Amino acid sequence: MADEMALLVADVFEAAGLLRRSGEGLAAAEGQTQARWQLLSVVSDRPLTVPQAARRLGIARQGVQRVANDLVREDLAAFHPNPDHKGSPLLGLTPHGHATLQRITARATEAHRGMTAGIAPEEIAAARDVLRRLVAQVRRHQDPDQAGQIP
Question: pTM for the complete prediction?
Answer without folding.
Answer: 0.80
